[in-house]
Amino acid sequence: MLSDFFRNWIQKHFPVRKKSRNGHSKKRHQKDILGAAGEEQAVRFLKSQGYTILDRNVAYDDGELDIVAKQGERVVFVEVKTRRPHPTLHPSLAVNGKKQRKIKLLAARYLKKIASTPDIRFDVVTVIWPENQSPALEHFMDAFR
Predict the structure, then answer these.
(1) 15 domain residue, yes or no
(2) Residue 69 placed within a domain
(3) How confident is the model at residue 141 (pLDDT cuts 50, 70, 90)?
(4) Which domain holds residue 74?
(5) Contact 51, 73 (CB under 8 A)
(6) Global confidence as pTM
(7) Which residues touch 60 (CB under 8 Å, ≥6 apart)?
(8) Which pLDDT does position 29 carry in this prediction?
């Protein structure tokens, strides 16, 4: 059972929002916009580092690959996490073991399309984007295996 402290913290940081006419909460819509903007920043960053973007938002029934890129001959699967600043929760913490397993599974499906078996890597790009300020990006190369 949750203590009062954690219950209050959850209610404060994850408030229940009223649904809009289309059934989606306003907060969810804002989060989607922030996430898409963060992915765009990550793509720009990766391109500036010499990566070639092969695919974006590769959707499967049970998940999505944010960015599939190439660095030299290596195929890089990049998970992007965009958040507003938080004093203790870094966006990279959202790429936990369960999320890593999901990304690996989706990457294996993606690789079935490719005739060869390339060298691969899993990266994470975090985007911390304060309101009305420029975003701060961090690139964690080979973040998990």
Answers:
(1) no
(2) yes
(3) very high
(4) 24-144
(5) no
(6) 0.80
(7) 106, 109
(8) 77
In a domain, 18, yes or no: no
Contacts of 132 (CB under 8 A, 6+ apart): none
- Rounded to 5 degrees, what angle do the CA atoms 52, 119, 109 make? 85
Confidence of residue 31 (pLDDT cuts 50, 70, 90): confident
Indicate whether 12 belongs to any domain.
Answer: no
Amino acid, res. 36 = A
Place of tokens 């949750």: 2
Cα–Cα distance between 36 and 61 in angstroms, integer?
20
58 — phi, psi (to 5°)? -80, 110
Radius of gyration of the chain measured on its C-alpha atoms? 17
Compute the distance between CA of residue 134 and CA of residue 128 in angstroms, rounded to an integer. 9
Q: Using an 8 Å Cβ cutoff, are 75 and 120 in contact?
A: yes
CATH number of the domain bearing residue 100: 3.40.1350.10
Q: How far apart are CA 7 and CA 84, in angstroms?
A: 21
Query: Closest Cα partner for 41 from 67, 65, 75, 76?
Result: 67
